[in-house]
Amino acid sequence: MAAPAVIGALTGGAVAALSGGVEGGVMAAVAALPGGWPAVATAFALPLAVLAAATVTRSLHPSTAELYIVTYHTPGAHVPLRQVPGRLLAAIATVGLGGSQGFESPSALIGSALGECCARLRRFAPAPDEVRTLVVAGAGAGIAAIFSSPGVGTLYGLEVPFRRDLDAPRFAPAAIAAAVAFAVRTALIGAQPLVALTHRPPLDAALLGAIVLLAIACGLGARLFAAALTALRALGKTHGPWARAATGAGVLAALAWCGHALTGRWITFGPGYVAAAWTLGAAHAPAVLAAALVVRAAGTLASVYGGGGGGVFTSLACTGLLMSVCLERLLGHPPGGPLALLGAATFLASGYRLPLAGVLLVAEQSRDLGLTVAGFVAVAIGQTVMGDASVSDAQRDRRA
Known about the structure:
400 residues
């Protein structure tokens, strides 16, 4: 089990350096520009991402968000190592200039690429099953490092290729790689969970009723988000990549300006931490929260349509967070309670069909058995409402 630990350490270090430099450096500098210049800068995010994909990667399909899943399901396939620099450049352009995506998929790419390199170093002609094991471990390590959750990272590589299954035999190497990656990232730049639980109210009937309502809302919201992505992908087939990038850039810049005018923060920027900090930082009117939710989700959709090089993993959790806080305000619940965490976990689990990862996220962040059981119920309801839909077209129903 030394190989997964090495992969985890390398992945954690690489992800910490890349995400810290881009999200904490470039994106923060763009957001600090005076007046409306950050919105102007955002208009260049998608065209530059497409330029990197066309000239350096020399491949526009599949998207980086789908690459790990496609590679997993292709017999004898390998991570296209020559495409890694171009795909990372596209992600840097997208996230650094304020696209509504994050480094989750590029982080999974870094980890899976390191896993394949490790497999090739260990044997001149490694067995396909060994390659797949280390690629799975690397992908999970990338998610553990970028999302600050070793549990979610462990289950990402096992669950995300499927809609109703998981690759359980590879649990041990995935867990080792994810734990080491999280530890390295935390040691270098610290952890950055999306939601911090500040108090734990008793699980009374009122709270349980709110959790059920939230789970239904998250399932419906994730299903609507997935349907919108499917429609945009179909629409994108009728237009060239540059036309999509230009259209997406204009929409994204307008949404960035609207979001700032509404909240005073550039809530469309990055994977969702800016929007989450604004949401949890003060009590906002439900109408303002609902408007911010629409703007933020629309920004992610525009980024995907325009060919952004990032992922939607954290963006899904951020959408669930906004939805839960809006419901929290409507029901009169005090801020900082468990609904925000449960909403983020349920929306993410529903959108990407990751029920076990969603429950484990609640367990990690709450460290409370009662809330973990509530998370299990919420995620189960969300999965049921989601039906057969998913934000990923590359997922398969079950293992062959």
